[in-house]
Amino acid sequence: MINSDEALIQTRHKIIEETCRLEWKGQLDAEHKEELVYKIIPGPKPEIGRCCVYKEREIVRHRVRLACAENLLDNPASDNEVQVIKPACDECPLSTYTVTDNCRLCLGKACLSSCHFGAISIGEFRSHIDSKKCKECGMCAQNCPYGAIVHLVRPCKRACPVDAITYDEYGFCVIDEEKCIDCGRCIHSCPFGAISAKSYLVDIIHAIREGKEVIAMCAPATEGQFGEKIGMPSIRHALKKLGFADMVEVGLGGDMTAAYEALEWSEARKEGKKMTTSCCPAFINLLKKHFPQQYAENMSTTVSPMCAVSRYLKTTHPGCVTVFIGPCVAKKSEAADKSVPDNADYVMTYGELSTLLRSRDVELEPVEEEYQEASIWGKRFATSGGVANAVLECMQERGEDIEDIKLLRCAGGEECKKALMLLKRGRLPEDFIEGMACPGGCVGGPSRHKTELELKRSRETLLKKADGRKVLENLKNYPMDSFSMHRDGHMESTEV
Which parts form a coiled-coil structure per UniProt (predicted)? Predict the structure, then answer.
């Protein structure tokens, strides 16, 4: 991914790569883990810009734990996928309101008179704000005629769409797990790499080494992530070199989900009921934690494409281990939710895929081979509007008139929150909400591998190669009556 945290990502992935190499060798024990810490930070000087090697080594130890999908020692009971590495979180300013050099020490002193908490004093060259007294009301900044007082919000807090980030008495970042939707936006916003997510590569490698049938499932957002010459066949071949038994594109699951959501939409339309989609796990977490009534009353009961393909594979390959690969951190929380049976066993991001390939010295190479299991509608699930378009396509394929359907396509946390607030207050004019927590849809996920422009160009080149099969026609080739498409796992008799 191209971002301001590129150097941090390289360090993070290097640690995960070396951890994976140890697991491939069967040497991931306490002794080798500590040797790895000294291999990454040999000393005597700091390697990654911290004050000393001792602090850097402690940060690496924390990262090794996350690379092994373990909770950090200062938060052992956490259920969150996203966690804070405290030794790395200590460089951001504690004061959110601060006085800049623009202060002219004016005679009016509007800042002083507007503060009701005694937090502002007049210094020799400019005003001063006492962070211990400041209540962050913002009146001083609002009333300063020179705009000399600015509001400095920590990058992690600014990036969080649900205000799940606060700070403890020492200034360390704290994630409120009751609010966090695991979207991962804070991970790449932190300039010190203090926020990270658990990685399940070690568990995946362990399953491969044990001889289990491990099958990869690649998200619809995959095409274009690695350039216009690396399509699904290339990734499939590389994964087989790693030891995966096979790979299936989750665009097929997009077809499955669209077909069953179309049935739900048709029924809701008859009843005059509004409905939201069920594909984006961060959006589902937003519903579940912040709009519980709408989660219970308005969310589609159809499973996500990831879960649909996992259930299909577990039906046709009993005992297999399913691994989802995509740009999404929140998918890890979906896989961890055992209330939805037979979902993916593990999730890895594109960055982790690249790391896993490097750990076995495998490269992605162009492959001249035809491979397509999804319709173009399923393949386009990853972009904003793609889910709704696929559902409407299924309704049309069944002969329904969709002219009067009103859709609201939301991409990004703020848009989703606004739509759900309108739904909660009964003021939503549209019939259906397509919710995606990332700007642009899944292709804009926190682990995307290219800039938006690069990705769009490469993606369109690859998608043009897809044939024009219809969604319902495509699903006739799969045993849709042998597994459930409902979230709770109960079997339904409805035909797609």
Answer: none
* H-run or E-run covering 378: helix 376-379
Closest CA to 393 of 318, 468, 477: 468
CB of 148 closer than 8 Å to CB of 126 = yes
> Residue 128 pairs with which residues in a beta bridge?
121
Report d(CA 424, CA 407) in Å as an integer.
17
pLDDT given for residue 488 in this prediction: 86
Largest CA distance in the chain: 80
Q: Cβ neighbours of residue 428 under 8 Å, at least 6 residues apart?
A: 274, 408, 419, 422
Residues 53/183, Cβ–Cβ less than 8 Å: no
Q: Dig out the tokens for 38 from the structure.
A: 């000294």
pLDDT average, residue stretch 70-86: 94
Phi, psi angle pair for 325, to nearest 5°: -125, 125
Cα separation, 261 vs 279, whole angstroms: 10
The first and second tokens of residue 398, run together, are 């069944």
Compute the distance between CA of residue 254 and CA of residue 243 in angstroms, rounded to an integer: 26
Cβ of 107: how many Cβ atoms within 10 Å? 5
- Cβ burial 460-487 (10 Å sphere, 16+ → b, else e): eebbeebeebbbbebbeebebeebbbeb
Report d(CA 452, CA 449) in Å as an integer: 9
Tell me the C-alpha distance between 194 and 476, whole Å.
Answer: 48
How much is the pTM?
0.91
Residue 136 Ramachandran class (φ > 0 left, ψ -120 to 50 alpha, else beta): left
Percentage of the chain exceeding pLDDT 70: 97
